[in-house]
Inverse folding.
């Protein structure tokens, strides 16, 4: 369906569009037609045309589901094999036996990894307009582990409640209550040095890095996977010779056409990244993916357009994002939230003229409340007082998630609006 839409758009781009104005046929240039259609689609948003946007979103969702069902039917042998495998795993999951402790442990780890991979994908979809899950989820998680590690003198937090809640380990740790916890403790002891720090001992930077390595690497792998759709779209467009519907790819082609005459810094920087990836290949992609680089958003389109081999692109992106870049970001968060840095930041807040004392008080109260939660015993109640800082952060998270959902609805509605425009031009040419 998407190929048919792209093919029907090609004659319109070459010949322009005829419109009737004041009883006369006038031919619009390709650029004017494209700009006019783009402006029309940009008005299809929830805050301008809510009913029309929701209607278009529903229709585009049905079209997308139909396309995916057709693709799954074409791969029905693979789907059938996966269903059989899923049934066998479900049987093993339900049958009682000595294997259940390993099943529960694998279930826990698999869900934990899938959670962070999913957040990583959400962070990289939409070429930078996705949900910034590092700031909302992974960063706060690393910061919480760091603060708890320095307060407890250990990262050997009891499981459960970790990772849902961080509690300092006690001198006498009770026996685990389930087979899954036994396997988890055995695996933690087998992993080695991570849990070997005594409660009274000092915490090293490497100990904290090791504690959050799994979730950080899974999040980085998710961001690498999120770069694949633009790569496949641009590669298919280059091989077929058809212009895809994606407007980001169209802007990328416009950027290539204007590369020599580009004057603004942003365009010149994007062109520089594109040339680096094109000329250096694997190591150029690795260098761009290994640092927090907003210009890497176009890497997937660039590599697909210039037919960079899949494993060259994905391998370099995976190593750069899940290994190198992730350790840089972890190190930054851990150092920032180390005990002496946090104390210095709170002291600097207090040095602000006039408002310093008023601003410093809630931060100190919040830190003290978090420390109190770390030391409560299993039979004690958890302090329920809520700081305005945590309340504010929760509201920011809710607002950003709502904005992300609205952007998805608007994007799908505009995609359907583009389908209708293409159908209109196609019908006009057949008449």
């Amino acid at each position: 369906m998407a190929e048919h839409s792209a093919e029907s758009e090609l004659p319109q781009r070459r010949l322009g569009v005829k419109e009737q104005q004041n009883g006369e046929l006038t031919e619009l240039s390709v650029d004017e037609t494209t700009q006019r259609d783009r402006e029309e689609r940009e008005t299809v948003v929830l805050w301008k045309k809510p009913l029309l946007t929701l209607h278009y979103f529903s229709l585009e969702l049905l079209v997308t589901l139909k396309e995916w069902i057709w693709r799954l039917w074409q791969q029905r042998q693979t789907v059938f094999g996966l269903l059989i495998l899923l049934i066998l795993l479900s049987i093993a999951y339900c049958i009682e036996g000595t294997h259940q402790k390993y099943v529960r442990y694998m279930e826990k780890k698999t869900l934990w990894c899938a959670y962070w991979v999913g957040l990583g994908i959400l962070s990289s979809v939409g070429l930078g307009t996705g949900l910034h899950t590092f700031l909302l989820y992974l960063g706060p998680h690393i910061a919480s582990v760091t603060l708890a590690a320095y307060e407890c003198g250990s990262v050997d937090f009891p499981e459960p409640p970790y990772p849902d809640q961080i509690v300092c380990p006690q001198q006498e740790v009770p026996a685990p209550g389930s087979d899954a916890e036994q396997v988890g403790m055995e695996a933690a002891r087998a992993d080695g040095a991570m849990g070997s720090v005594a409660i009274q001992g000092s915490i090293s930077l490497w100990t904290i890095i090791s504690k959050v390595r799994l979730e950080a690497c899974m999040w980085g792998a998710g961001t690498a996977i999120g770069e694949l759709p633009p790569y496949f779209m641009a590669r298919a467009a280059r091989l077929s010779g058809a212009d895809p519907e994606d407007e980001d790819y169209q802007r990328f082609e416009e950027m290539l056409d204007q590369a020599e005459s580009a004057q603004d810094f942003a365009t010149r920087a994007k062109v520089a990244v594109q040339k680096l990836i094109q000329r250096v290949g694997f190591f150029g992609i690795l260098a761009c993916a290994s640092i927090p680089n907003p210009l890497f958003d176009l890497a997937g389109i660039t590599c697909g357009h210039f037919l960079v081999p899949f494993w060259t692109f994905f391998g370099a992106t995976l190593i750069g994002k899940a290994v190198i870049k992730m350790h840089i970001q972890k190190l930054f968060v851990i150092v920032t939230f180390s005990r002496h840095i946090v104390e210095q930041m709170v002291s600097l807040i207090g040095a602000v003229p006039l408002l310093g004392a008023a601003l410093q008080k809630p931060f100190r109260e919040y830190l003290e409340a978090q420390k109190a939660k770390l030391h409560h015993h299993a039979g004690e109640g958890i302090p329920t007082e809520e700081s305005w800082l945590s309340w504010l952060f929760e509201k920011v998270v809710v607002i950003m998630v709502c904005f992300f959902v609205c952007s998805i609805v608007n994007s799908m509605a505009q995609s359907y609006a583009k389908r209708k425009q293409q159908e209109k031009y196609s019908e006009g040419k057949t008449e």
The first strand starts at residue 17 and ends at 21. The chain has 18 helices and two strands. The radius of gyration is 27 Å. Residues 1-27, 190-201 have pLDDT under 50 and may be disordered.
